[in-house]
Amino acid sequence: MTSAGFDLVTRPWIRARTLDGSVADHALADVLGTAPDLAGLAGEVPTQDAAMQRLLLAVLRRSYPEVRSPREWARLWDAGRFDIDRVRDYLNGHRDRFDLLHPTTPFYQVAELRTAKGELTELARLIPDIPAGHQYFTTRAGDELRSMSFAEAARWIVHCQAYDASGIKSGAVGDERVKNGKGYPIGIAWCGWLGLVVAEGRSLFETLMLNLQAMRTLPPAEVDLPVWERPPQGPGVEVGHELPAGPADLLTWQSRRIRLGHDGQRATGVLIANGDPLHARGLVETEPMTSWRFSEAQTKATQSPTPVYMPRTHRPDRAVWRGLSALLARDDSAARTRAGGWLEWLAELRSAGHLAADHPLRLHTIGMEYGVQSAVIADIADDALNLRLAVLTDEDLTGIAVAGVDDADAAVRALGQLAADLVRASGGGRELAGVSRDDAREQGYAALDPDFRRWIAGLRADTSRNDARTAWQVRVRQVVSTLGHELLDRAAPTAWAGRTDDSGRPINGATAASWFHIDVKKALPLAHPSLEGAVS
């Protein structure tokens, strides 16, 4: 491609996977036109796919501004595909804004952005999987960091606007916030605040549709504009635009000011400066793709007369099912919880009869974890759970799923206590082959993980609630009892000789096993009176 431009409407740049598993780059118009034939996006990292999906949702919101109710949504769902001519007509109306290299309105960038010294930084600043100073942890190094294709650069620019870390940025000329040539921290980019929840379907079309919420509080279409329908931004904060006007505005929020450097053939450098700051408080009605928690600290800090909610985040080291109770929390003024817009929307579609109770979904959770002062990217949370719509929308079935997590938690606590008791019985001087209370708990969750995923995927609208939970408790008992046997087999000899603990109570391997037996029975009452295989 020459310096004439790189048209994102017609040039391939969005990486997607077909239903047969092959991966290729697609143009913006084509990826929407062929969405029923695509399994999903397939970018370099999960957060890139999330950021790209939000871009596609903004395009759809503007291509179909009339979709403002479940009934209008259902007409598009029943059509089974997006009207490619309609999408192209919309994109062609804003063609200059989708040119990555446009001289005055480059996509997601500021054309005249510069520093006082006129320098650019290395492209690695765009890429979250390049640990600063530790390039040996990545496949990218040397020449691969000095340039990249325009297609890949465009993907990373979308990602940067959504997930860039905080910290000091390049000081852009014309930005009144710059001091001593530096752009001091304004916080992480918008999506970094979110524990993103994406309801995925059997194709990219279904996934985009399931997340194209016709929210009750949608502002007028002429007010809620994506960035490419707004006047081009300059280097500083856009005056009068402190908060997003609506979902389309928020989906394309410009957290950074960016300019890509290139030689006409490839991207060669980048300038990243501060953009529009945005705090997560107060946006519970505008951001649908996350769940929310009450924040006492934010409520006090803002002296708000009403509760302030903040997005729930995901932990990279914790399976999504372990936090199912918080993820599926419904509006409860007493508990001060708020359901995510994504959950309310799916419930509304089922209630209106537009989706069947047993419609299969993949609940995909994505999030970014930041390091010290949020100035570096530490890890990415990426997990998914296959289930039926009824698990999300039927209160009784949701309760069974959450109770299943509680059963696992209680049994794993018993396993952890067994490990702790065996260490105490040995005098505490020798660990059990490195197995501490925390180690045992993590082993318990890891062992139960595939079983829970199979169990919840099997829950259907007509499932017997009692039978399902009984079957789950029986399985948990089998898994945890086996792990308990293994802990006892590895116990130090001194643990079996035992000792008297600080309270004067004798403790040894036999008493630890007996207590474990009692704890498991209390944790899993439906798995009794039969306790074959339990430790005794």
Automatic annotation (TrEMBL):
Question: What InterPro entries does UniProt report for this protein, alphabetically?
Answer: CRISPR-assoc_prot_Cse1 (IPR013381)
Q: Which CDD domains match?
A: Cse1_I-E (cd09729)
Q: What NCBIfam families does the record point to?
A: casA_cse1
- What name appears for this protein in its UniProt entry? CRISPR system Cascade subunit CasA
